[in-house]
Design brief:
Blueprint (H helix, E strand, L loop, with lengths): L2 H11 L3 H8 L3 H11 L8 E5 L5 H9 L4 E6 L2 H10 L7 E5 L11 E7 L7 H14 E12 L5 H17 L4 H11 L5 H11 L2 E9 L2 E7 L4
Parallel strand pairs: 1-2, 1-4, 2-3, 4-5
Antiparallel strand pairs: 5-7, 6-7
Helix pairs in contact: 6-9
Bound molecules: S-adenosylmethionine.
Length: 227
């Protein structure tokens, strides 16, 4: 799928984003409890990048746990950034929003934490492997990378079974599973956890971990740390 199609797809969802995600992503809200727990426990002045920030749902979590943070919300879609600004208005002055394409535009640097929620699967596998080097160089020493994403298993039977579970879930929520599945197949590049960890290691990351997984969704962490 071309980048303008990705933009249009998300522009249409901006207002109803969270309600839709709850119906499309199994345990979407439960995942936020996991991500909250993975954030540092000391409230320092962290500089945080929320990549593919959408309406700011993960930035809100960061401010709840780390209110002294400064967040850069980076997204391709203008209407998502507008929703972010509205949703997080009480934190205004503590965040800045950048509209851009992380394939080609600078994502900034000197971050202590980078969070990427359901966004990196828009990169092809080749782009993604390279992009992990950009993420690594954008982090300060000791920095933390948290990703939640769609993943894919290595064995075809397992993949089919997991997609079957996902479709059942969407159907149980009143959504059309075939519509969303075909959008996913058309525009996304889900990675295996094996590739994900190998590319992170190659980029220089250490302490890679899968912190939560349900079928074809996972939350992982990695650190930029001299070992
Ligand atoms: C499914 S939403 C995720 C929102 C939020 N991070 C979450 O975890 O729920 C994906 C977001 O990634 C953005 N996005 C997709 N491709 C992008 C790109 N190449 N550069 C910047 N943002 C992108 C979309 O505009 C959209 O807001």
């Amino acid at each position: 799928m071309k980048q303008d199609q990705v933009k249009e797809h998300f522009a249409r969802q901006a207002d109803e984003y969270e309600k839709l995600m709850v119906k499309l992503i199994p345990q979407y809200l439960k995942q936020h409890q996991i991500i909250y727990r993975l954030l540092p426990n000391d409230d320092k002045n962290y500089r945080v990048l929320d990549l593919g920030c959408g309406n700011g749902i993960l930035s809100e979590l960061v401010f709840q746990k780390l209110p002294n943070s400064h967040i850069v919300g980076f997204d391709l879609t203008e209407s998502m950034l507008k929703s972010f600004k509205k949703k997080l208005s009480k934190y205004s002055g503590k965040f800045e929003l950048k509209q851009g394409d992380f394939r080609s535009d600078s994502i900034g640097d000197e971050y202590d934490i980078i969070i990427a929620g359901l966004t990196l699967h828009h990169l092809t596998w080749e782009e993604r492997e390279k992009f992990y080097k950009t993420l690594y160089s954008s982090l300060n020493e000791g920095g933390l990378f948290i990703a939640r994403d769609i993943i894919i298993d290595e064995n075809k039977d397992v993949v089919d079974d997991q997609y079957g579970y996902w479709k059942e879930f969407m159907k149980s929520q009143g959504e059309d599973p075939d519509f969303w599945y075909s959008k996913h197949i058309e525009k996304d590049y889900p990675m295996t956890l094996t590739d994900h960890f190998a590319w992170l290691r190659k980029a220089g990351f250490s302490k890679m971990a899968c912190q939560w997984r349900l079928y074809n969704f996972a939350i992982t962490t990695a650190e930029k740390r001299e070992i």
